[in-house]
Every structure is written in C-alpha cells, then in structure tokens.
Amino acid sequence: MKFNSRSLLAPLAAISAGILSLSLAGCATGISTTPTPPTTPTPPTTPTTPVAPPANPGVSFSGKVTAGSQPIAGATIQVYAAGTTGNGSAPTVLLSTPQTTDATGAFTVPAAYPCPASSSQLYVVARGGNTGTSTSPNSAITLATVVGPCNQVTASSQFVLNEVTTVATVWGLSQFLATGASLGASSTNTQGLTNAFATVANLANLTTGTSPGAAFPSNGISPAAKVNTLANLINTCTAATTDLTPCTNLFTAATPAGASAPTNTLDAALNLVRNPGTNVAALYKQSTASNAFTPALTTTPADWTLFISYTGGGLNEPGALGVDSTGNIWVSNYSDSTGTFGIASKFSPTGSPIFPTGIKANGLSDSYGLAIDASDNVWIPYEHSPSGLGAVSVLNSNGQSISGAAGYTAGNLYYPIAAAIDPNGNAWVINYGNAHLTLYSSTGQVLSGTTGFFAPSFAFPAAIVVDANHNAWIGDENDGFITRISSDGTQNLPVSCCNSPNGLAIDQRGYVWAANFAGDSISQISGSGTVVSNGYTGAGLDHPQGIAVDGAGTLWIANYRSPALTQLAGSASSNPGAALSPATGWAPDAALPPPPGSSTPVKLLEAFAVVIDASGNLWVTNFGTNTLTEYIGLAVPIKTPLIGPPQIP
C-alpha cells in the first residue's frame, strides 16, 4: 500500500482516526553555497624518504594518456599509494624516477618499486605533455585514474588516463582527495577507501577510458551522459595547444566565490564536486565545444552532482535503510499483500543486489524501520506478523534470521515502526500502535518490562535516535513533541518544538535535528532539551522525511515531495541551519529513464530515508518508484554502522 498525498503513514490509518492528515506545502528558497573542505599541500614529485626495501613485490603495469582520442606525449607519470593518516593525507610516491609518455601517449611502470603494503591502494597521475601533434606543452593538464590494490596488479594490467577516468576518480574519491592530487584516508577507514576505489571503477572503464565501468550493475541507471559532459568540459582544456584560453575559462568558472582559481584540470574538477552549483550554465556551454565523449547531456543540468538509481533486489515501497561495516546497503520494504517481493534488500557498496529477489524472513511484512548493530545484525520491525500485532526480525550478515521462527514479539509490541541501536548494543523499538517503546538487549531479551516504556507526551511516535548517554529521543508524527527518555524508562523530557517530526538525527555535539514533515522545516534542539530553532527553511525543503548528519556535522535531508536533496550547515557552523544547497536543492533533476513511448524522464518520487557511508556517498530510498539512489561523494564519511551520534571512521 503506497503513501497518499494526505498522510505520510497512510497504511497505518486504520489504527486510529486520530492520525494527522498532512497537507502539501510549497518549496521554500535558500542560498547556494557549499564550503570547500580544507586541503593539504601538493605531494612531492620525488620521495622525501626512500621507499622501504621490498617487503612487498614491485608493481608493474602499462598505460596510455589521452585527451579524448588524441595521445598526450611527454606527460610526466607518477604512481602513488594512498596516504593512511587522514582524508587528503600525503600519499607515498612510488617512482623515484617518474615515467614519461611516448609519442603515442604510452608508458610502462617497471617492477622496480615496491608498495608500502601489498594491500596499498594505488593511483596514477599524468601531468603536462603535448596533445596530438602539438609541440607546445600544456602545463594545465592533470589527469588521473585508479589502479587498485597493489597485490591485484599484474604486468599485463593496462590503464587509460583521460578525462573520463579523471572525472570518475575525482567524484568517486572526492572526500579523500586534496589539491595537487593528494589522496589518502585514515588507517581506520581502509574499507571506505576501498569501496570508493570500486565506485571509480563503477563510473569508468579503467582499461578503455569510457563510461560506465565494465562491471557497472545491470540494475543501475548509468550516469554516463553526465560523466561524458564533465569529461568534454575538461577536454576543452586538455585538447588546447597554443591557445590555452579554454583552460583559463575553465579555471575561472570552476572557482567558487572567495577561493583561488585552480591551475590544473584535476583541481578544477575537484572544485566542482565540492561546489556542485558553481557556474553550471557557463560550464555546460563550454562543454558543448567538445564532442570527444558521447553520449553527453543535451540540456544544462541542475548541478554537477553525480547520482545512480538502482532497482531490483526485492525493492518494493522501500523505507528505512542502513549501512553495515563493509559498506553494504540494507533496505526495509513495506512490501505488498501477496508477499511477492522480499521484505529486506541488501546491495553491495556499488549497488549490485546481493539477494536478487530480496529476503523474506519469518513470513513478516509491512516494514518502515531498520537498524544495524555493531555485529552487522539487521533489526527490522514489522507491522504485521503471525500474531497480528507485529514483530522484530533480526537478520545476520548473510540474511539468515537469528531471532527465531516468529521473530521477537515480547515487550508489548504493537505495530512496531522504527528502531535504533544504542552504544550499549541494545535495540530500541517504537510501537506506533500503542505509543510505547520496547527495549531489547543485543540477544533479544526484553529490558523494558512487559508493557514497555511510556511517556505522556507520546501520541503516534514515528522516529527515534539515541544519544551518547543512551537516552532515546522520539518524534511524534501527529503533534509537535520530541521526547527524551532514559535507558531505564524512568525519566522523560517532553520538548514542544516541531511540526510532525517524522525524521530525527543527532550530531557529534549532542544536538537533535528534526525533519518537520508538515512544516517544510528543520528544528534544532540541544541535548538538554532547549529549542535552538523552531524551523530552518529553504534550500529545497519540501515535506522533509529522512535526515542524516555527516562526519563534519553537516545536515542532509531527503524530501518526500521532491526528488532533491537539502544540505544545511550544522551546529558547529557560525550560522547553524544555513542553506548550503540551492533553493531547489541538490540534484532536482535526478530521475529514471522515460518509459516506453515517452521522452519524459520519471522523477524520483517520495524520498523516504537517507544514510551516509564510509566513502562519503549518500543513499536515499524512493518509496514511490521502488528505487535506491546513490549520490556520489557529496558528504564527509562516517563510521558504519551508525550507532548513536555519527563518528569519523
């Protein structure tokens, strides 16, 4: 049963005639600035210290550098191993003597230089060179591609460095890149970096230099046209010979207000992924001067975000979602009355369905909620069960039920709708039908008594987050209250603040943020219950439903009545709640291909939830189109699974 235009939770309307009917509201307006994260210095072109003796084998491969179809001769080639001391940290330079491309743009890396570790993630950067038959070097050229783990590269491996691989590298690795092609992650986020490298290979074929990648999933909708448009934009500079005006124009237009202009093509691309609203019309017009890569966009895009929508995997009215420790995406589905579709879906970090038709566990159906614990067990509350009042099913990482044949049913469950895991590993479950909370231990023991926890301010609870002190915060769908309740259920603090707070998030400083579905706004509440703001607006907010906080404390909101994402400044900002996305939000043109016989794309519909992974990608469920959409590289990574406030991985 789908949501209708009058109620967010229409399938639950039979529970009580008192559920609020939600009216539509128009879009608000905002500003379109996005801060550029700090950068680190340009990496040295020669090692500052010699690479250690070969504890690991030397890496060898070959490649070619091109501007479109033209070879770039005389380009300087350097191979790097990604840094391990933080995002954008200085990499290890592998080649003490950089290679130089020949007249055909070709180069070979000899097996004389060992990697720091066998699992080191390698990438290649080409700088300068002469395009085609030109004898004039173009110092503005900087192109890149990823190679992957050192121990998976062989002498027969071949790579292309061109504008497409550069776009894929910059967007896929944007949160790990700094100016000058420095690329690194913290030593505790190797998984996030590994998954980001895989995203690059999803966007571009590393052997042919075309988009999408060789292993791009068949259930995904390729962003090749936008990748090619960005590649053509860069090509206007890389193909330039004696007249470098296109480079100057590119660097000027790719500079956000108050920043210094880049001096090379890779840094210009990095500016665009970090500031995707920058001079879109002018840059798109410049891109049309090149047709090096096709197909390309035929109209000006809304912004420079890259996104991929995925289908399959049992998606059917998808609601909540979460990310496990390896970057897999789990989705709960409301399902349908026939049980044809799985009630849980699992996708790889690059969007491939792990279970082609989803997971049907315990015969349960109709779910809006999902939470993942530290052991990667997935807790899914369901409205309906054999008992008729709902249950909670817990799946292990292989999709197998570990909560018994009927799931967990004790603790006064009555149409459970949402769940959250606290720092102790306990699972909080909201019961929409009787306005109580059920608290389970990690092994399914009821910790909240036979009747569950209750507070007088509870009405129709719909959203929950847990703070660092193990308190739960609950948002009520049909009133303006958020309630804080202690882990033993004895203390509660009602906060009158909001307008149908259907989505909640908590940041690193303990502030609670509420997505006000009926108010087209976001509220901010301190950890002590003080209302800091009763409604930030604009930036594309339109019936906000899902909300998440990234590693920098920035807010990301999915809008139920708009396909666009909203970005707001967080509590540590000098202007909390300030609009960082345009008045129409980011990616309002995100859509599915036209149906047969039509030329009109299908807009993404009824965005329900949003989560952030350890690579900086945003994932959004679209309840109305049965899709899962990935917005690539926009957010600062967080540790997954998310338990309590977000943490830097």
UniProtKB/TrEMBL annotation:
The keyword Flavoprotein does not apply. Residues 33-63 are annotated as: Disordered. Keywords: Lyase, Signal. InterPro entries: 6-blade_b-propeller_TolB-like, TRIM-NHL_E3_ligases. Residues 35-56 have a biased composition (Pro residues). GO terms for molecular function: lyase activity; zinc ion binding. Gene3D superfamilies: 2.40.10.500, TolB, C-terminal domain (2.120.10.30). Residues 1-28 form the signal peptide. This is Streptogramin lyase. It comes from Edaphobacter aggregans. The lineage of its organism: Bacteria, Pseudomonadati, Acidobacteriota, Terriglobia, Terriglobales.
